[in-house]
């Protein structure tokens, strides 16, 4: 196994396998290393390969080999990446917005991470299906119905003698709805009678009571339009807009089946499935599938959803992306699904549990007033911040004229990169601090820095072409300097990095890769006179290398879910 060298002064790659092989073959590591080196000496791939005590193998790539390799990458649509997927279906369950409740920053992480995971899988050749899996069947519906009754008691939905058709027009707008839910939820906390009414209404809705079903449909269509807009602003898109309500029709069968299979048993009036296994390091509680009052739960609806997904798609893998506090829930659901045989034994089920997005005070991110931060508001404030920066920049460089419209568009693009990169550059399971000043900075490990690098490349390419020059057909030559070789080595790592990032469902690995690549490019750029290079062949080779760098960066940011503007 070859790894990148941690002593770039000595070599580019190293192999430490002789140390491990020594035991197995009862030989001295240096003898094994020397034998390997003898076999490989003269191979066109290496310019230098040596065995050093106690048994390391140090390697430098032949610059010509590296240049040819990059030329080969450039000819392929996916830059030489070997797809590991062949159209197998994978469900990514992310987003998870709750209908009629505002999208808050907790939902931001699920949307951002899920979208990246989905795009990565697609790039690797899988048939990725993203399902937003809305929370559309809970108590919030009963709360809204009862609050609506208090506000507009004359609506036909509340007239029990009414037998006609229900109106096609919703009895509220999105802004009313946005006000109805928080009011109702506040009331329920203070007024037990109101809460009971809401519970009854929820129960009636869940049992098919026609007037409430009609209201539910209005709530769904009004909020769905708004949700689609909000997710659209994040450049997050779903193949399926299903939700908990879609799982309900499978639940009676499911409960019966779990009982028939002897998996579910009564416990304190509830119906539960034991999921503990002897190898568990801590005791895991059973999965409750029906409460003592007969109501289904979160787990039940996730199991129902699995039954539907198996019927419709037979995915080879399920990926759920939620807050890591839901970990136990998913362990329970996965184990019940396996025990009952709802998924094939070889079907993979994984839960990516993410950490909390905190404010600079280290506590969960809040508005300045201390309330829950709404996603829309967060987006708007980062947009504004970016626009301010752009306008200031523009004033500093008086010769650069951009229209207000372009400035706004550009601000939006950079803001999205700042937010998404700020999130994705952390390992998902970790908490992170949402630091708007750092995230929007054009320097350091940030989204805007990556965009700035891409824009810099675009501007060099534009300048080159506007001089009437043409590099097409030219090849990438062996590196002319150390910084150029370094850039080339970074580019050559693209395929392996992508496979690994996908394998580990780890978008943060793409971020660290492009950060290093951007740094390698910028060092090369600062040390190299590209535009004033007199040797045309060398200049063409530089331009080809820039094009490849741009392709790699653009593919990577597309997988992370954002785009670069033409200029910044
Ligand atoms: N609606 C849930 C929430 O806001 C997330 C749903 C996640 N997906 C799932 N299949 N349980 O916490």
Question: What can you tell me about this protein's structure?
Answer:
Helices cover 52% and strands 10% of the residues. It is of the alpha/beta class and 568 residues long. It has a four-stranded antiparallel β-sheet with strand order 1-2-4-3. Strands 6-5-10-11 form a four-stranded parallel β-sheet, with helices on both faces. Helix 6 packs across helix 7 (192-206). The protein is globular and about 90 Å long. The model has no long low-confidence stretch (mean pLDDT 94). It binds arginine (ARG). Residues 93, 96, 98, 133, 135, 302, 320, 322 line the site of arginine (ARG). The site of arginine has 8 residues, from strand 10.
Rg, Å, rounded: 29 Å
User: Which of globular, elongated, flat, extended, rod-shaped describes the shape?
Assistant: globular
Across the major sheet, the strand order is 1-2-4-3
Bound molecules: arginine
Biggest sheet details: 4 strands, antiparallel
Helix content estimate: 40-55%
Number of strands: 13
**First-to-last CA distance:** 42 Å
Number of helices: 19
């Amino acid at each position: 196994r070859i790894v990148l060298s941690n002593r770039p002064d000595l070599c580019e790659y190293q192999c430490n396998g002789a140390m491990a092989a020594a035991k197995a073959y009862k030989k001295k590591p240096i003898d094994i290393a020397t034998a390997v080196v003898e076999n490989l000496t003269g191979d066109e791939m290496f310019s230098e390969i040596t065995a050093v005590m106690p048994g390391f193998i140090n390697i430098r790539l032949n610059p010509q080999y590296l240049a040819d390799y990059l030329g080969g990458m450039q000819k392929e649509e996916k830059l030489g990446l070997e797809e590991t997927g062949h159209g197998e279906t994978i469900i990514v369950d992310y987003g998870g917005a709750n209908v009629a409740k505002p999208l808050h920053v907790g939902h931001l992480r699920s949307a951002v991470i899920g979208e990246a995971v989905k795009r990565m899988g697609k790039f690797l050749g899988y048939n990725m299906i993203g399902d937003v899996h809305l929370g559309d069947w809970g108590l919030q519906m009963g709360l809204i119905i009862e609050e609506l009754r208090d506000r507009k008691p004359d609506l036909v939905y509340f007239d029990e003698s009414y037998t006609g058709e229900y109106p096609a027009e919703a009895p509220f707008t999105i802004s009313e709805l946005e006000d109805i839910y928080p009011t109702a939820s506040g009331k329920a906390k203070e007024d037990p009678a109101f809460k009971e009414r809401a519970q009854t209404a929820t129960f009636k809705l869940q049992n098919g009571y026609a007037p409430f079903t009609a209201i539910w449909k209005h709530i769904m269509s009004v909020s769905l339009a708004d949700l689609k807009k909000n997710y659209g602003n994040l450049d997050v898109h779903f193949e399926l807009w299903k939700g908990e309500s879609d799982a309900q029709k499978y639940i009676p069968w499911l409960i019966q089946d779990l009982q028939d299979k002897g998996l579910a048993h009564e416990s304190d009036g509830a119906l539960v499935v034991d999921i503990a296994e002897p190898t568990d390091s801590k005791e895991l509680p059973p999965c409750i599938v029906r409460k003592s009052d007969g109501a289904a739960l979160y787990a039940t609806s996730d199991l129902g959803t699995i039954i539907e997904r198996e019927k419709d798609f037979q995915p080879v893998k399920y990926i759920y992306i939620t807050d890591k506090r839901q970990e136990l829930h998913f362990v329970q659901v996965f184990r019940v699904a396996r025990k009952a045989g709802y998924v094939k034994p070889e079907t993979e089920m994984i839960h990516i549990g993410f950490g909390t997005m905190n404010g600079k005070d280290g506590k969960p991110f809040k508005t300045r007033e201390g309330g829950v931060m709404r996603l829309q508001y967060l987006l708007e404030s980062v947009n504004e911040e970016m626009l301010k920066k752009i306008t200031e920049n523009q004033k500093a460089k008086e010769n650069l004229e951009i229209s207000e419209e372009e400035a706004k568009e550009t601000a939006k693009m950079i803001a999205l990169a700042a937010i998404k990169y700020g999130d994705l550059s952390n390992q998902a399971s970790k908490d992170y601090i949402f630091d708007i000043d750092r995230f929007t900075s054009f320097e350091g490990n940030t989204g805007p820095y990556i965009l700035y690098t891409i824009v810099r490349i675009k501007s060099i390419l534009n300048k080159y072409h506007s001089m009437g020059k043409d590099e097409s057909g030219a090849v990438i030559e062996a590196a002319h300097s150390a910084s150029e070789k370094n850039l080339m080595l970074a580019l050559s790592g693209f395929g392996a990095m992508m496979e690994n990032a996908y394998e580990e469902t780890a978008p943060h690995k793409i971020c660290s890769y492009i950060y290093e690549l951007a740094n390698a490019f910028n060092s090369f750029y600062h040390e190299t006179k590209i535009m004033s290079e007199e040797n045309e062949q060398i200049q063409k080779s530089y331009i080809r290398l820039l094009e490849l760098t741009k392709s790699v960066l653009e593919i990577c940011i597309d997988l992370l879910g954002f785009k670069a503007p033409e200029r910044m």
